[in-house]
Amino acid sequence: MKFAGRPSWRASLDLPQHLHLAVFVRDAYRLAEHTDAPTPAMPGCLPRVPDLSTEPDAPTPDLADWASWWQEVLAADRAARSLQPQPGSPPDDFARAALQRHAIVDAPDFPSLAKRPELQRAAQVAFHPFRRWWNRGPDRPRSTGQLSVPGFKGELVDLIDPNPGPGIVNETVRRIEQDLGRHVAPFNVDIDLIGTDGPEILVQEDDYALVSSELISGPQRFSAWLEQMLLSLA
Questions:
Q1: Between helices 117-135 and 63-81, what is the axis angle to 10°?
Q2: pTM above 0.90, yes or no
Q3: Residue 32 · residue 26 · CB < 8 Å
Q4: What is the pLDDT of residues 5-56, one digit of tens each?
């Protein structure tokens, strides 16, 4: 999680593992290939997800079951975010809140999917491949000379550190304050990044957004969108 801000305002940019896991299950069984019908907040595909649908005795989950699960995950995530610590809270409070959010997708057994047994079995089979994809991979040197965080998570960390994460957030707030001729009003904004190929914005509320890496990878687009979001709070 990357933070920007000062005592009167806070903005975070996070990489929600639990949302990536849910989308990984869909993509590992190639469910998005079976329909052209849009689903609310339906993310694009993740890169380099292994095809588990061709394995012997592979589960055969249904896209409709996955789509309803996705909406449940987003709803539970929204409820968990409503209990987030306030700006100025101790770092441990934010760490505990993040763990509670990640537990929404109840791996590795996924008891919440018991009434959708094929999807439950698919999620159980996909869990360990997901962990390898998310956490493991070849070391990649960074411009600082240090090695990056491994796995796909590391690719997203590289994408937001230091820009267009905290750097662009701080620059955007400074630009808003210059235009307004005053400090911005107190606010607390959370932005989650999911590493899919679009749509750019999946969920947007007053103080929260779920966006794809397609938006973050374009710093000018990200900055323009962020300015419009923060102006309503400033």
A1: 60
A2: no
A3: yes
A4: 566 788 888 899 999 999 999 999 999 876 555 566 789 999 999 999 999 9
Q: Which residues pair with 33 in a beta bridge?
A: none
The answer to whether 5 and 167 have CB atoms below 8 angstroms apart is: no
Q: For residue range 58-68, list pLDDT tens digits in order.
A: 999 999 999 99
The predicted-structure confidence for 150-177, as pLDDT tens digits, reads as follows: 889 988 988 887 555 567 888 888 899 8
* Distance from the Cα of residue 19 to its chain's centroid: 6
Contact 29, 122 (CB under 8 A): yes
Q: How far apart are CA 136 and CA 180, in angstroms?
A: 46
Q: Token pair for residue 55?
A: 């394995």
Measure the CA–CA gap between 80 and 85, rounded to whole angstroms: 11
Look up residue 218 and give its two tokens.
Answer: 């374009």
Strands of the 187-194 sheet, one edge to the other: 2-6, 9-14, 187-194, 208-212, 201-204
Rounded distance between C-alpha atoms, residue 158 and residue 208, angstroms: 22
The phi, psi pair for 164, rounded to 5°, reads -95, 35
Integer Cα distance of 44 and 119 in angstroms: 19
Phi, psi of 193 (to 5 degrees): -110, 130
Q: Which of 230, 227, 224, 218 is nearest to 193 (CA)?
A: 218
